[in-house]
């Protein structure tokens, strides 16, 4: 027996445009006494590894896929709205896109790992450090749409540290971000579909389990309603042909 499909009106985010961009943010700290306690630095050896940890605004480590991986995403809209710009595509065709300027920010921590004798002996973590980048994109972003930014990946590379008598002289590394930028607008669409239900859980047969899932009935007679198409009268035409055969 086949599935019973019906007309469903659902609200979904429509994606008008979608791009990804890698952003490299060089980080350099010189003679900075606010990152680590001097007593901590005095205990470090000569072989130190620098690790960068993505955090939220409270300093808690997070994964790039977490909702709070980015602290703030602010669109910098000029007076008069987003500016249109004509872009020439690789095939020579021109298209009008919109200039979207974004301020994207978040937090991270620096972990110093003492690798004396090639073994991890001590680990020291800095305070929470903010980062920010301003990026300009040219996207299909008509009025009424909003930018939605996700952090696909976050990595710290090229870490280098120089100490002198237990004091930080230089600490440098790069933060490499992969940003996913979508232009979205919630829309309502009508689709043909059926409700889905959970599969039966494989449990002890003596356990009765939960009651069946029930959805409220839909007023199909008025919404979304049925599409009515004009029916054309079908007419048949007869043609007479006279053929002479000699």
> Which stretches are low in confidence, meaning pLDDT under 50 for 5 or more residues running?
229-246
| Topology order in helix (H) and strand (E) letters | EHEEEEEEEE
Outline type? flat
Give the beta-strand count.
Answer: 9
Please give the domain count. Answer: 1
Rg (CA only): 31 Å
Strand content: over 45%
Query: Portion of residues in helices?
Result: under 10%
Residue-averaged pLDDT: 84
Kindly name the structural category. Answer: mainly beta
What kind of sheet is the major sheet?
6 strands, antiparallel
- Work out the helix count: 1
Beginning-to-end CA distance, first to last residue = 62 Å
Structure notes:
This protein is mainly β and 246 residues long. It has one domain. Helix content is 2%, strand content 50%. It contains 1 helix and 9 strands. Strands 2, 3, 4, 5, 6 and 7 form a 6-stranded antiparallel β-sheet that branches. Strands 1-9-8 form a 3-stranded antiparallel β-sheet. A hairpin with a 5-residue loop joins strand 4 (84-88) and strand 5.
Helices and strands in order, then pairings?
Blueprint: E1 6-30, H1 38-42, E2 48-55, E3 72-75, E4 84-88, E5 94-114, E6 122-125, E7 129-139, E8 146-164, E9 167-193
Antiparallel strand pairs: 1-9, 2-5, 3-5, 4-5, 5-6, 5-7, 8-9
